[in-house]
Write a structure and sequence with these properties.
single chain, six-stranded mixed sheet, four-stranded parallel sheet
């Protein structure tokens, strides 16, 4: 598909959205399989001046009920297979249209006969472009509001930082309901006028085939772990100038093994849904295993004392805080929570703990908010715990992330059964069916008589993480 055709199709879809009643500032919720038509829809929403609301394709009806009720979208675009379920959502007011993985559906039918000329609605830098929901420590998801200024500043910076040109070919095997695949990968490639192999999902064989004709690959650590096992890896990297990893910590061992196998040092970077990219290892210079590099141009990053909020010296561990044109506008309809997440000086409190070394490289050492990142996707333990604790035979639970050789971290539940109750993993998983997305479900469940607590009665998750740290690695 050419850029001209992409522009024409987005004009048709933008005309269709306006015909459905979409006005500037309205939300358009999208839960569809990855396809070029889905990317066209993203561009059409922005051209219409509306707010793009991507939703993970594995979200259940229970989860969607909250998102739709909170965001109140004017239009919801879904896969035809779930349309009959969405119409049952309580309080639904929006128009429902469908779009499948092949680009067919009622949205395509509604737009294909329309004029492909569309006067793109003018938007200011502070106007909303997208809302991405990110789970909260209390279990209730929050919508991170990203402006046009946030997105364009990050894309322009990364284009320069990673040397993207029109003759680049990006291997795109990431989902596009996620900031990584949509705002980092897609936006940067589009802005540079580059080409993309737009793979519907990650498949080692398909990625290896496309890699032989690509110049850049963006992936999550799980991708690189799996590709290292592929027999054709070494022969497929000849045309690639840059491998980038994000969305989850890249283990130093994976970094070293990849360099040994391919001759390429993976460029690891650090970002968040609320901020897009914050730091990046250099294009030219040392890409240090275990480090996510210095702050990118235009971003101010500091590490502060957890108690006083005072900036710390180099190599001292504290809270990572950031400000810059990439930082989001706040949480949708959550002014109180937004106020708590920002310092008076304008710094956003990331919730991650880290330290900055003498060269200005950031190392992330932990997370203050107990976030688990599995396969590049965020899981907040409280949300999973709430569903497990609702099971009658469960007294309480604690959900933690434990190092996993494939997923980076494995969601793990430590469960205390109710008095006299007998539980096993299969029973608990069966009761979670339809309540949690598959990526949020624990990969292992451990049953104990009691959870470790401190003097104040708080569960000591650090003790649990240490106790079960070899659960997935089979180390003695």
């Amino acid at each position: 598909m050419s850029f001209g055709e992409l522009f024409r199709q987005s004009g048709q879809v933008a005309n269709a959205l306006v015909a459905m009643g979409v006005k500037p500032g309205d939300r358009v919720a999208v839960q569809v399989e990855k396809s070029v038509s889905a990317l066209v829809l993203y561009l059409a929403v922005l051209r219409a001046g509306a707010v793009f609301l991507p939703l993970n394709t594995s979200y259940t009806l229970n989860e969607l009920t909250y998102f739709v009720g909170d965001a109140e979208p004017t239009v919801i675009v879904c896969d035809p297979s779930v349309e009959c379920q969405l119409v049952l959502l309580p309080g639904l007011r929006g128009v429902i249209k469908t779009l499948d993985a092949r680009g067919s559906g009622t949205l395509t039918t509604a737009s294909s006969s329309l004029n492909d000329e569309f006067a793109t609605v003018t938007r200011d830098a502070d106007d909303l472009a997208a809302i991405l929901y990110t789970s909260g420590t209390t279990g209730r998801a929050k919508g991170a509001m990203l402006s046009h200024g946030n997105l364009i500043s990050n894309a322009e910076t990364l284009r320069e930082l990673w040397r993207f040109q029109a003759d680049d070919v990006l291997l795109h095997a990431l989902p596009i309901y996620h900031a990584h695949g949509l705002f980092v990968a897609s936006n940067v490639a589009l802005l540079a006028g580059a080409s993309m192999w737009f793979l519907p999902r990650f498949s080692p064989d398909a990625v290896i085939d496309a890699m032989a004709h690509s110049t850049v690959m963006m992936g999550v650590p799980t991708h690189y772990v799996r590709l290292l096992k592929h027999p054709r890896l070494r022969q497929s990297v000849q045309s690639v100038r840059l491998f980038i990893s994000g969305s989850a910590p890249l283990l130093p061992a994976t970094h070293i093994e990849w360099a040994t196998a391919t001759g390429h040092a993976i460029l690891e970077r650090y970002g968040m849904t609320e901020t897009c990219m914050l730091t990046s290892n250099p294009y030219e210079g040392d890409r240090i295993p275990g480090s996510v590099g210095p702050a990118i141009p235009g971003v101010e990053l500091r590490v502060v004392d957890l108690d006083t909020g005072s900036p710390l010296d180099r190599n001292e561990i504290g809270m990572i805080e950031v400000k810059g044109p990439n930082v989001f506008r706040g949480y949708w309809r959550r002014p109180e929570i937004t106020a708590k997440e920002f310092r008076a000086e304008g710094y956003f409190v990331t919730g991650d703990l880290g330290k900055i070394d003498e060269r200005g490289y950031l190392r992330i050492v932990g997370r203050d908010k107990d976030l688990v990142i599995t396969g590049g996707l965020n899981v907040y333990p409280r949300e999973v715990e709430a569903e497990i604790d609702a099971i009658p035979d469960v007294a309480e639970s604690a959900v933690i992330g434990i190092e996993h050789p494939d997923f980076g971290e494995g969601v793990t539940a430590v469960i205390v059964p109710a008095n006299g109750a007998s539980l096993n993993e299969a029973e608990v998983l069966a009761r979670l069916e339809g309540r949690l997305s598959n990526f949020k479900k624990p990969k292992r469940m451990l049953f104990v008589n009691e959870l470790p607590r401190n003097a104040m009665g708080k569960v000591q998750k650090n003790v649990l993480r240490e106790r079960y740290k070899h659960l997935y690695t089979d180390k003695a």
